[in-house]
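fold description:
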Amino acid sequence: MGMIGCYIRMDDENVKELQNGAQLDISGSDDNTLDIDKSWHAIHFVLSGEVWEIDEDNLLSQVVLGGSPVNDDDMGYGPARLLEKDLVKKLADTLMSWDEKAFRHKFSMADMVENHVYPVRDDENEEQFFQYVWSNFQEVKTFFRQAADHGQNIISFIY
C-alpha cells in the first residue's frame, strides 16, 4: 500500500472535538476529503525545495508537512496536523499562482532520486511521474481553495 497523503477540510467545532480527544474518522470518503496517494512527498519537494524540512520563510513548505499536531493519535506516520483557516487562506491564495509551467520548472526527477523523495525510483518514467504528481497537485490547489472559500481548517496526515 505505501505511504498515502490525505487532507480533510474541517470546521472549528470538529477541530476542537479532535483536540479534546475525539478520533479522526478516515473510513469514509466525501467532498471534504482528499487522498493524494503517494504524490505527497514529491509535491512537498517541488513546492519547498526541501526533503523533510519545513522552512519557516517559505509559506509553501506548509502545504504538505506543515501545521501543528491536532492531538497525540498516530495516524500511521505521525499525528494528524492542523492547518488553521487563516493559514489555509494564505496557502490557497499562494497556490493559485502555480501553473503547470511553474510546477514543471521546479520539478526535477534527478534531484528527487538523489534526495530519496518517496516514492521516486531511478527507473521511473519522468513524464508519467510528472503527470501523476501534477494531477494530484491540481487537486490540492482546488481543495485548499474550497477550504478557504468556506472558512475551513485543513487536517493533513500520512497513513
Notes: The helical segments are 12-19, 40-48, 62-65, 85-95, 100-106, 109-114, 126-149. Residues 8 and 132 are 21 Å apart (CA to CA). DSSP finds seven helices and five strands in the chain. The chain has one domain: 5-20+32-158.
